[in-house]
Amino acid sequence: MDAIIPFLVLSGIVWFWLDAMKTKEIATQAAWHACRELGVQLLDQTVSVASLKLRRNQRGRLVLMRIYRFDFSLEGVERLQGRAVLYGKIVKQIHLDQPDGMIIEETDNTPRPDAD
Fold first, then answer.
1. Domain residue ranges of the chain, discontinuous segments joined by +
2. Would strands 79-87 and 62-73 be described as parallel, antiparallel, or unpaired?
3. How high is the pLDDT of residue 113?
4. CB within 8 A of 10, min separation 6: which ones?
């Protein structure tokens, strides 16, 4: 019986780590697509979690809201910052800070069956 609690804690940590890796992959793909659409270059290996909070999704369920920060370049010279906002595994917004102002791309908010 004493071994169950450490096993459950370890299982929770492993689940959270695997979920975080999958969500980072989704954020990286969303950032890559947004950069490609705008004709800018996503700088490799720059996607990292900046914020983690509990929020309610469209269905009213509590999900993790993750904000990922990434760097991109307009012409390969200067580094600019962007952010991807995810609720669970659903990308809500992509923010790209540019010299002329911020670009905010709203994404399709339709929940996928496996997104919660």
1. 4-106
2. antiparallel
3. 45
4. none
Residues of the chain with pLDDT under 50: 111-113, 115-116
Terminal C-alpha separation, the chain:
31
What pLDDT is attached to residue 108? 64
Which residues lie closer than 8 Å to 36 by C-beta, 6 or more apart?
A: 42
For the stretch 68-73, contacts whose Cβ atoms lie closer than 8 Å and that sit 24 or more positions apart, written own/partner, are 68/24, 68/27, 68/28, 68/31, 70/27, 70/28, 70/31, 70/42, 70/43, 70/46, 71/42, 71/43, 71/46, 72/31, 72/35, 72/40, 72/41, 72/42, 72/43, 72/96, 73/40, 73/41, 73/43
pLDDT at 1: 66
